[in-house]
User: Fold these one by one.
Assistant:
Number 1:
Amino acid sequence: MPRMRPGRVRTKHDNGRPPLLLSTLKPQNISLRDGETRTIVCPDCETWRRLMGETQLKIRQHCAKDCTGCTSKVAADRKVHTTCPGTDQPVTLDISVEVWGERMLAADSTATGRRSARQHYKPLAQLPTAVHRLGDRGPQGTPALPRLLPLLERARHAVDQHRVVCSVCRTGGRCETGRALEVRSAETQASCTIAREQQHRQERQQGGRSAALTRRSQWAAVLPAVRDADTRRTSVPVPPGRAEAPANAGTANVPTEPENLEAHDRRQAELGRQYAQRKGSVALSA
């Protein structure tokens, strides 16, 4: 287990400089957390060093940042060490550890707020052009297929001429020259096949674009008629011969009583008797 108690000061002397005040130090350059060894960044060598003592704090004795005794590979030079001027530098806690902790939290929150929460991704590297597509178009912008067809015919003719002259290839064997000519002819044939497929694909794409342009022009031609039909559809015409009610017509002419009161009473009485008979029959059956 590491020793958590503060180290004991071995000397009463210091480096003769005024003490460093805790209130003037940056919170991130000193550590005074509970349960951790007290450390501080030495103002001279700018490295983390231990603070010794309980009430009178001093920076522990240490070598300089570029001490030859620590960095030299020669055994004789490693015995000589250069002491850092920040050794035995007194440190005064003019503020409480709680105040220092509040400043530390404020510094952490400020640093966190400065960091952007958005992640910026590097753009993906663009894939290089495939080898078989490097010669799709020539320097004058001509397609690849018309340029490759004469090359293919020339390569086949070279193979046929070599087979006529060479005795090894004529009997069914393969010499080095014949094999090189056949490989070149096969590569040219493959390039022609790829160029032909690319040309067909481009023709299909151009055909789709032309079809889309045709449909767009057709819609543009009928668009005025469609707008006129929509405008006429919104207005509802009045059918001929239909008598419209006058605008000032009220409810004065609406009848509220039957025309024949006697017939109406007889009808109501008949409905009452039928209802009574139906209700009595339902009660007897229950």
Number 2:
Amino acid sequence: MSGPGMKLRPSTDREGLRRMTAEDIRDTFVIGDLFQPGQVSMTYVEVDRAVVGSAAPLAAPLPLPTDRRLASSYFCERRELGVINIGGPGWVELDGARHELDNLDSLYVGRGVQAVTFASASVDAPAKFYFVSYPAHAAHPSTVVRKAEARAIQAGDQKTANRRVIRQSIRPGLVETCQLVMGFTELEPGNVWNTMPPHTHGRRSEIYMYFDAAPARVMHIMGEPTNPRTVFMDDGEAVFSPSWSMHSGVGTAAYRFVWSMGGENLDFDDMDHLTLADLR
């Protein structure tokens, strides 16, 4: 079954973030109702008109519904969709064609796919599908990218506790998209920092979803470098950052996170790097 309908997260500006309490930040930027068993959950984020959601099927497959906020007859009528399975084996059916997804496999769904259905291969180890969607101006082929097929980049240093593997699965050269890029990062044991020093990219917003963290927690850092704000994240929660906001995090143990971006540019090197001295 579906959840209670698509929720809305309005956009905010730099000044608005400066005035927020810790509770305000969580209520505005953190999406904490993902992966409800037997449900599809969706949140419409006004920043770049993203939709962040999950499907956690059990015995019965779950169709992806549209919503009145999209003003469309089906979800992907004017949208593209990126999916990563962070649970057990499952499959996603696109207009009758089944695509098997194991743990940490990715799927790009192109504009114009009318019927999207999520299913688990077993209720004993159900699939957990995380998805992010952006508006699309053209139709591109739907494509599966296995974990082993993603572009893997070794980054960081054990000395600074941020050694990690960045796996770019939905990206130029592997999958043609309109504005979506997506993948996940895996911190190696004994490492806790991600994306430090941080950066911004004024032409794209970014969304993080932390997973495989429990019982650890992650302190996510966002906002302007001269006025950083923090929020503690639990396993399976997502947080979005406007294009003007940095995004970084430190955990109480190693973890993984899915990152996704949408905006004007698909170039991964299109970012404004910060230094530790820039942070206040």
Number 3:
Amino acid sequence: MTGHSDLREVSFRLPRCHGSVPRARAILRAKLGEWRAGHHTLDDGELVLSELVTNAVRVPVPGDRMVGVRIVCRENGDRLRLEVSDAGPGRPEVRKPRETEADGRGLLLVAALAHRWGVDARPAGIGKTVWAELLAPGAGPVPPEQEVAAVTVRPGQCVRAWGDWRTVLAVRSERNASGGPVVVIALDDHGPALRLHAAEPVTVRPLGPAATS
């Protein structure tokens, strides 16, 4: 597993059996809890992952082929990408089953819950990867980032600090012992403020839905 504060990722493989579906859900729930992700995407994420893994274990392939799962969590849970790979041919398509049919609604559910979804050929080996991306309610595209001098930072922006995005609550100017200009940036986690030389570069972005969780 790799991960830093705004991108967390885990990949694992599962056998092609019915028990892999609850196991995938349990891993998703455990990882999102470990990463302190918001709960708003968890329920939908479990449903989507269940459908993707269910479809993958039903694909008619040799028995020793396993199902690959990749979970990527961004923006403290506001963005969740789920990928499930199998060795089967073809591309799954959304069906509209009759009311009397018990199966065939998996991708309908995925399409309804996901912000977007798709199917990609596996870059190495045979088969395909079916993926879905979920957004928390109200989350929109990530605002653009830019590097600016610390003296230009304003309240309401987000700054990159200690490997994470923090909302700027207040900014004030001071002088250091030698008389040089210092910018003190108070952040939303109530931890230590940033104390930077006025000209020191800082990565910022506007405060947007994806930065408020």
